[in-house]
Structure formats: structure tokens, C-alpha cells
What does this fold into?
Amino acid sequence: MEMKEVHQVEDALSVIRHAFERYRFDEQPSSALNETVQSIQLERRNGMKLYGIWEQNEWLGVVKYVSRHDLMYFSRLSVLPDHQGKGVATSLVRFIERQAIREGLSRSQCSVRKRETKNICLYAKLGYVVIDESRVLNANGLEIETLTMEKQLVK
It folds into this structure.
């Protein structure tokens, strides 16, 4: 597995859509399914970086991240369904943490739906703790219960 910057937004968008497809008919569909090449390009112009894991001519997973004050915030951690549970997400999170430390940042943070217990367990296993619980309005106009999880990084 090779960690690389994703230069073609269309590649990242394909992984995101495949990873979040399971939410399409959910009572609270993920706004990830509404992302477009243009919306991701706008985020990139505003400082967001896009990296992924490349193996055998295929992106297995991607993640977006951005520096905010003294922390690294990551989002849309997306792994193709056939590669979930194989360490791809863990590798992506560890990469973000290393990037944060390189940039002199002391924390890594993400938000996760409260009902996504598998994701919450993964982040907890990696040292993240819940620091906030809230209801947010997603891009679909739906109120979603979310947790903010954070990890203190050792420089």
C-alpha cells in the first residue's frame, strides 16, 4: 500500500461515493453522496488536502484533511467496501497524525455520526476520545447527532 496525494478529484469522488453508498437509502442519507468535483475543488482552494492509499492501480481509500489553528481536522475518511476492515482506515488516520506532528500541531480531530459505533470504536482504539456531542444540520438539511473525537498528539 502506498500513501499518495490524490491529484484527480474524480478519483477521490469515486471512492467517497462507493464508501458512502450504503447511506443512500438511509433515513438520514449522508451528504457525502452530494459532493461534486466542484465542491471538492473549492475545499482544496481553501487549504484542504486529499490523500489516499494506492495499491495495484486502484485507490483503496481516501481522506480529506485541513489544518485548523493548533489541530488537524480530517473528514470523509472513505474506504472502498471490499477493503474495509483491512487496515486502510487505520493507515489513513496514522498518516494524518504524522502530518499534523510534522506541521507542529498538537491535536487531531474528526466528527462522526453518533450511531456509527464501528467508526467510533476504531477511532477510540487509535486513541481518540469524545470531546463534544452535538446535533448538526447536514448539507441535506437533516439534523444529525454527531460526536467530535480528538487525540492529543505527541510531538
Summary: The mean pLDDT is 91. The first strand starts at residue 2 and ends at 5.
